[in-house]
Design goal:
The complex is a heterotrimer of chains A (346), B (289) and C (266). Chain A is an all-alpha fold and 346 residues long. Chain A is built from 15 helices and no strands. A two-stranded antiparallel ribbon of chain B has the order 1-2. Chain B has a domain of 195 residues. Chain C has 266 residues and is α/β, with parallel strands linked by helices. Chain C folds into 2 domains: 166 residues, P-loop containing nucleotide triphosphate hydrolases (Rossmann fold), CATH 3.40.50.300; 60 residues, no CATH class. In chain C, helix 4 packs across helix 5, helix 4 packs parallel to helix 6 and helix 5 packs across helix 6. Classes of the chains: A mainly alpha (346), B mainly alpha (289), C alpha/beta (266). The interface between A and C is medium-sized, with 22 and 33 residues.
Chain lengths: 346, 289, 266
């Protein structure tokens, strides 16, 4: 069992108050950005949100189902291209886009899941890497859908309701995208609380014991993987709504790596941590991209190495780890990887 | 497509497959023995290729130097990876895999920065530049030479793995780690040795593959994906399986790229999916009492 | 999914199914032709093994005799390489552990890791998840039964080894099994805990079949009325508990093998 998915031992459902505070903080941050007069800021933040939501989807699969994945980029791509194609054929209702993208993403993730959820740990990671590569290759080759390497541009803006004007203004797009992203994240958090969280923890941390108690582990993991695909599909729709163009690089390997990195940094078990991780990575990347263009992978890789070495359990586990270190003294051994024998991956 | 071109392509495919086998054998053994999934493997292959492409100058001496240099660089890379992953041993295989993934991103970007984004090819000695008639077909000499070296390396590798004490230890570690520890050998030493050897083989395979395919920015990703497909199709940890799968992948990849370029990756993925569905996952914990 | 036993709950414990295989064929678990090998090493080779309602059956043998493998194959944790299993007359060879658990075949594990991040109460709730609407006992009552009520809100990972073993038993009991397979339930327990274990097994309804793999001969003596001795995966001896324990060949088997670390005192 990896320290990464194991995250923190004191893993309890956050109390309602804490969750409410997080929601208020998210709303406050978005409002603060929206109030600012700098419209480039609106665009920048709005364009981070699809990736943040994709990171949430990766955190659901990685942290809750315990399946480290690079492959959520596949349903993300499906959601994005479905939305782009719908918009280009004149269907511009945002709700239709989101629904189609969610269903498309869930269907694709469900199909992939039938093969992949039988595997665990590094083998799952390896297979999901193949999924990400195939997604990138397909997006590049299927010109009829993706427009080849040039991509699709000039995608019309969506409308909230028939008759309303399309979502054009930078501030409007930001508020719309933030609403969808925050709402989708909190629906995911809400769905993964209480008994469902407990059952997934059981399936993840000791699969044999869960099976021996009659729990359908494959079916449960498949359902989580599929639902997370729906979430990734919505993220794909948001990608089109905020960018209004798409190239194969937007659903490429770099995006898959970035989403997983966001989860490594944010903490696998915390969906909100993953979203924050994505925003941090994107900010650093955008700053570096301006200074030394062409070195985004170098930066991603460096952050990966730093994240894996220094942040076991991610940022969200940091307070717990620090508290434990302070209370136990500097020379205390790290907590033994519990039930290391249960989930051998080889 | 003419029959003789197809025949030549198939021979190319077998040669490429053997190179992939040399590269993937180390990957599968490292995974089977120590559970380390080395996602930086493709970068080591690409590094070997770049070293070969830039060191060769058309002379025999430079060719030999390039091959040796690529192998040594690969071994050094493998050693670095062994040290880096060993530090995370207590945290599990997943963190190790994520670390190698980060290293792969860094390495890939450094290679592109140093060597540019063009596809490079080595400059072979004049004697290897021509073509010869083999069984009625014209065939480039350099590819025949690569094929010969690949067969030689594979044969030596087989003998080392099956006849030498080191090889037996490695195979024993794949089968049963505890048993190896029981006879007084630290399995972690075996892990490190496997990663170094695996890196050396990756560098060598990269150097040998450049005359056929060249080396470019896509090499690391492609070879990693192909190696992973080989490891999965051949069975995790199985060297004979990897060799069989590698030759299959090499032929499909080479022939596919020539005949149906767009479908080639899907053929391989389809083959992998069929293997995965047909094969039952192994029980995660050995339950022998 | 649920298979209902045509057994009266207050029927007395059966003396032993070995002499009465038809009884097991009707409403028990019958394994036949079980063979299991890891590479060249055959760990299990049994022509038949039957479990009937009410059995109190101990499987003993030196380490490496295939006991845990047998339990894993019966519970579905390990898929039998060859052989057939029927349960209540239905073939269940290809049914997984989750199906068998729901059908009433519960088990404990030799290394009870449980779910370290969950509280004891949650562990028992998960064990009895499929009976949560009409449980025989509430999760708290189950914890009481095994003596862990005081630890209900403690994480399973923080329990002592003995407590973890008792919690594993509680999780298995919460699943309301008709056949309970216990893998070395007394290993590493203190004397008090061992007494508690024997007490819990004695308090099982008489129609529940209990099969335990055990080295601890005191527990075997207290609980089992039939003993099967495995050696190298094969049935070495089988018979009523008293006879087998008095059999000098069994004592010789234990004393003569280096593997039988926990010495038995028959």
């Amino acid at each position: 069992m990896s320290a990464f998915t194991q995250a923190f031992a004191a893993d309890r459902t956050p109390p309602l108050l804490k969750r409410g505070a997080t929601a208020a903080f998210a709303a406050g941050a978005v409002t603060a950005v929206a109030m600012s007069p700098a419209s480039y800021l609106h665009t920048t933040v709005a364009r981070m949100l699809p990736l943040a939501l994709l990171a949430v989807s990766v955190a659901v699969v990685t942290g809750h189902a315990g399946l480290p994945t690079l492959g959520q980029v596949a349903p993300y791509a499906v959601g994005a291209y479905l939305t782009a194609r719908l918009a280009l054929t004149g269907i511009d209702l945002a709700a239709v886009h989101l629904l189609t993208a969610a269903i498309g993403g869930a269907v694709v993730a469900g199909l992939i899941g039938t093969v992949l959820v039988r595997y665990r740990g590094t083998v799952f990671l390896m297979l999901s890497l193949a999924v990400a590569e195939v997604t990138a290759i397909t997006a590049g080759q299927w010109r009829a859908v993706s427009g080849g390497t040039d991509g699709l541009a000039g995608i019309p803006a969506p409308r909230l309701l028939p008759g309303l004007p399309p979502l054009h203004g930078d501030r409007t797009v930001l508020l719309y995208a933030a609403t969808i992203a925050v709402a989708a994240t909190f629906v995911a958090v809400w769905l993964l609380r209480g008994d469902r969280r407990m059952l997934l923890t059981a399936a993840r941390t000791n699969e044999d014991r869960a099976r021996a108690s009659g729990h359908l582990v494959y079916a449960n993991l498949w359902m989580v993987h599929t639902a997370a695909g729906g979430l990734a599909g919505i993220a794909g729709a948001l990608l089109i709504h905020t960018h209004r163009w798409i190239t194969p690089a937007d659903v490429g390997f770099g995006v898959a790596a970035l989403a997983l990195l966001a989860v490594v940094i944010g903490g696998a078990r915390s969906l909100i941590g993953a979203a924050v991780g994505a925003v941090i990575v994107l900010i650093v990347r955008d700053i570096v991209a301006v200074e030394v263009p062409g070195h985004a992978p170098l930066l991603l890789g460096t952050l990966f190495v730093i994240g894996v070495y220094l942040l076991p359990g991610g940022l969200t586990a940091l307070p717990t780890r620090l508290r434990r270190q302070l209370s136990a003294g500097p020379h205390s051994a790290p907590p033994a990887p519990a039930n290391a024998s249960v989930r051998r991956t080889s | 497509m003419h029959v003789d071109t197809l025949a030549v392509t198939v021979v190319d495919g077998v040669a490429y497959g053997l190179l992939l086998a040399i590269a993937a054998a180390g990957l599968t053994v490292a995974f089977g023995a120590g559970g380390v999934l080395n996602l930086a493997h493709g970068v080591l292959i690409a590094a070997g290729g770049y070293i070969a492409a830039t060191t060769t100058a058309g002379t025999w001496a430079s060719l030999v130097a390039a091959t040796v240099l690529a192998t040594v660089a690969g071994a050094a890379g493998g050693g670095a990876l062994a040290a880096a992953t060993a530090a995370l041993r207590g945290r599990g295989h997943l963190d190790q895999a994520l670390l190698t993934f980060g290293i792969a991103l860094i390495g890939g970007n450094l290679l592109t920065t140093i060597f540019g984004s063009d596809v490079l090819r080595p400059r072979m000695p004049a004697a290897l530049e021509g073509t010869v008639m083999v069984a009625g077909y014209r065939y480039p000499v350099d590819r025949l030479a690569v094929l010969a070296v690949a067969v030689l390396v594979a044969a030596v590798g087989y003998v080392v793995l099956h006849r030498s004490r080191a090889g037996r230890l490695i195979r024993a570690t794949v089968d049963d780690r505890a048993m190896v520890a029981g006879i007084g050998v630290n399995p972690r030493t075996v892990d490190a040795a496997v990663l170094v050897t695996s890196g050396a083989l990756a560098g060598l395979a990269g150097a040998l593959a450049t005359p056929i395919l060249g080396v470019g920015p896509g090499t690391a990703d492609t070879t990693l994906l192909l190696s992973l497909i080989i490891v999965v199709c051949g069975g995790l940890g199985s060297v004979p399986g990897a060799v069989t799968a590698a030759i299959g992948v090499g032929v499909v990849q080479t022939v596919g790229v020539v005949t149906v370029p767009t479908a080639a990756p899907y053929l391989l993925i389809a083959a992998m999916t069929v293997t995965l569905v047909a094969r039952r996952p192994t029980v995660p914990n050995g339950a022998a009492s | 999914m649920r298979i209902v036993h045509p057994v009266e709950p207050d029927q007395p414990p059966s003396p032993r199914s070995g002499r009465d295989p038809d009884h097991a064929h009707g409403n028990g678990l019958v394994a036949s032709g079980l063979r299991h090998a890891y590479g060249p090493l055959t760990v299990l080779d049994l022509d038949t093994f039957t479990i009937a309602p009410g059995d109190r059956h101990a499987v003993i043998g030196p380490n490496g005799a295939g006991k845990s493998t047998l339990l894993g194959v019966l519970a579905g944790t390990i898929r039998a390489q060859t052989g057939q299993l029927t349960y209540n007359g239905h073939t269940v060879t290809r049914h997984g552990a989750e199906w068998r658990a729901r059908a009433g075949i519960g088990r404990t594990f030799q290394h009870p890791t449980l779910w370290p991040d969950l509280t004891c109460l949650d562990c028992v709730r998960i064990g009895g998840w499929h009976h949560r609407r009409n449980p025989d006992r509430t999760p708290m009552e189950t914890l009481h039964l095994v003596g862990l009520a005081d630890h209900a809100h403690q994480h399973a990972g923080s329990l002592s080894h003995g407590h973890r073993r008792m919690l594993d038993l509680a999780v298995a009991i919460a699943g309301q099994p008709r056949i309970l397979l216990l893998d070395e339930p007394a290993a590493g327990l203190t004397d008090t805990e061992t007494g508690r274990l024997i007490d819990v097994i004695h308090r099982m309804p008489s129609w529940i079949a209990v099969v335990l793999v055990e080295h601890h001969m005191d527990v075997v003596a207290a609980v089992a009325d039939w003993i099967t001795v495995l050696h190298h995966g094969r049935r070495h001896t089988a018979g009523p508990a008293d006879t087998v324990r008095a059999d000098p060949r069994v004592a010789a088997l234990y004393l003569g093998t280096n593997g039988g670390g926990h010495a038995a005192h028959p």
